[in-house]
Amino acid sequence: MKKISRRQFLTQAGNGLAVAAAVSGATARAFSAAPQSEKKVLIIGAGLAGLTCAYELKRSGFDVMLIEARVRPGGRVRTYRDPFADGLYAEMGAEYVDASDRNVRKYCRQFNLTVLTAKQYDGIYLRNRRWAMSNFKTNGLKLPYEGVMPGKLFNNEREYIQPWLDMIEDINNLPREVLALDNLSMAQLMRKAKAPKDIVDLYNYTNATESTIRPDEVNALGFVLGHYRAAGFSEDTNEGRILGGNDQLPKRFAKELTDQLYYGRTVKRISVHSNEAEVWYEEAGRLTLITSPRLVIAMPFSVLRKTQLQGKIPADKVKCIRELQYGHVLKLAMQFKKRFWDEPGSLGQRIFTDTLLRRVYHFSIDQPGPRGILLSFTSGDDARKLGQMKESQRMDRARQKINQIWSESDSHWEGGVSKYWNEDPFTQGSYSSLGVGQAKTFRALAARQEGIIHFAGEHTSGASMEGAIASGLRVSGEVKQSVDG
Ligand SMILES: Cc1cc2nc3c(=O)[nH]c(=O)nc-3n(C[C@H](O)[C@H](O)[C@H](O)COP(=O)(O)OP(=O)(O)OC[C@H]3O[C@@H](n4cnc5c(N)ncnc54)[C@H](O)[C@@H]3O)c2cc1C
After folding, report:
1. CA pair distance 430, 202, nearest whole angstrom
2. Which of 85, 103, 113, 479 lies at a CB distance of 3.0 to 4.6 Å from 469, suitable for a disulfide?
3. Which of 303, 306, 271, 266 is nearest to 284 (CA)?
């Protein structure tokens, strides 16, 4: 077998020359050489999408190989345990399981995992002022923002888009005026609707924080349809998380795939032919070629767009891979010696803020004290700002901001850790969030099967664990359908 160096590979590929079929690595050789059974499938990416797909195909008798760049499963489901004392842990990636997350809950039941209900906000800290949530709601208090409704934190923008909501009679047959919103951002639509700037500023901290982008990047069509379906995130969203850590879910899948899952293999190049895919991956500094009659790509487009992709891929799909919008997200987990947030006079343990940290909340609700972890979920421009700082500076800024909210916090501070997903080489972003001009076609385009290549991942379905799992299920069905007819 011929081996080539990384430099040779890049030079050859860069010149557009055909790369000699070189196979190193026993597993790749064995998989490539196995009889070209229609039931042979190579899957790239062991996040929840790739894992679900591999798990379901294996159960249906397929010969599956799943390759993953990291040395752990789960991708953006990432629970940190080691940095903390007393058995504390923190979710640095995906956290909440919503009441409607049918497939996540189904697999949790199957693997005997418990979903714990997490608390809603109990405090608001905006423009340097503070409100207890219960007082704010019960007494119909108003935030210091022009144009807001009494007792309302989320969805203050709704009344300004009522004219567009009234035009919708059938969500499957949208009028031209509504479809045209695909070419506008939420911020532009609000200006058109003569909404005060404050409404957009507040939205930046309410729903735009969840989508991890800025109001001028939020697609106005998606925004209006979200309101029509009442699907937006709000203070009433029923949230849960897996007791003991979300990483248990991907790990359970991975355990069922011990013989099929190969870690530490980073895909560098994919070449698509009509009846075969060639995939080049790097392992311990060496490139290895593996071939398969069918391929599932379950890695984010933010990474795929930087991977060499050759073959007859339609232009609209290439555009979608290159341009699909991803946001910015950073999480900070901070350990304190004492749970001062539970002391009398505290604003609460789960605070909605417009500081750099945005959402700040007690995470270790299922673990005994006295120590505890506060988590911050921040996104958009604030994640960008923190992301540009060194780890020690991120912690200094976080410590200052926490002290602004709970003045007694400083003496209990022990340290913390952050995770900026945009600097992670195997994610390079937060999650997909349809940009201006992308709402009408990009989700379907991302999901579309291209001959022997199938596409899974949250970006093909919906930016959540549920979306990732649903995409894995869809693609396992697609593969079975393509093979069995
Ligand atoms: C900070 C944060 C908070 C979130 N909060 C929530 C939440 O509260 N609730 C919720 O439901 N969802 C949340 N999400 C979204 C959720 O994490 C994702 O939608 C879901 O986990 C994506 O799964 P996936 O399989 O599509 O992608 P990933 O999990 O990214 O999996 C893709 C896999 O491909 C691998 N890969 C990438 N490049 C290569 C390569 N070149 N070669 C080989 N392998 C490669 C990666 O290492 C990864 O393992 C959050 C995400 C983040 C980042």
Report:
1. 21
2. 103
3. 266
